[in-house]
Amino acid sequence: MKITPQEYQKMQKQASPPSKSYINIPMAFLVGGLICVIGQLLLEGYGALGLEKDAAAAWTSITLVSLSALLTGFGVYEQLAKHAGAGTLVPITGFANAISSSAIEAKSEGFILGVGAKIFTIAGPVILYGCTASVVYGIVYYFFLQ
Q1: Phi and psi of 6, rounded to 5°?
Q2: pTM (predicted TM-score)
Q3: Tens-place pLDDT, residues 2-29
Q4: What SS3 class is residue 131?
């Protein structure tokens, strides 16, 4: 069966629900912003406890990642992401959600061949290309911008 691009486009429009951008975009902005506000409050709170800026930043990241993993485990993060869309994907919490959801799905296959092998299924390419890009940027900086 051969389908023309026009027929495929018509089938795709019928199968895909229309996106409500006027709701999705502001919701993603608000939820992503709220996550960042929570991060800033944590940073200020850790600073008020007497931690230096670098230590407070590290504890803020640890707290956000832990909360995201915990909320993923309880199924709350998925419900939030359903309504907030990209607002939950962009911050550090989205990365933690990607890793923990992969681990939760693979748990039934065992810790080594399940969790150990599949934990980075979603986040692996991000880590790989992020590390590769940082090496390339470092080389460019060393040879050309120093």
Answers
A1: -70, -40
A2: 0.70
A3: 888 888 888 888 888 777 888 889 999 9
A4: helix
Q: C-alpha dihedral over 98, 134, 32, 18, to 10 degrees? A: -70
Pairwise CA distance, residues 71 & 92, whole Å = 14
Residue 76 CA, chain-centre distance (Å), reads 15
Report how far residue 122's alpha carbon sits from residue 97's, in angstroms, rounded to the nearest whole number: 10
- For residue 124 the two structure tokens come to 């692996």
Retrieve residue 98's tokens: 């990607």
Residue with the two structure tokens 């993923």: 72
Residue partners of 115: CB distance under 8 A and separation at least 6: 103, 106, 107, 109
Angle between helices 53-73 and 21-48 (to 10 degrees): 130
User: Of the candidates 111, 98, 86, which has an alpha carbon nearest to the alpha carbon of residue 26?
Assistant: 86
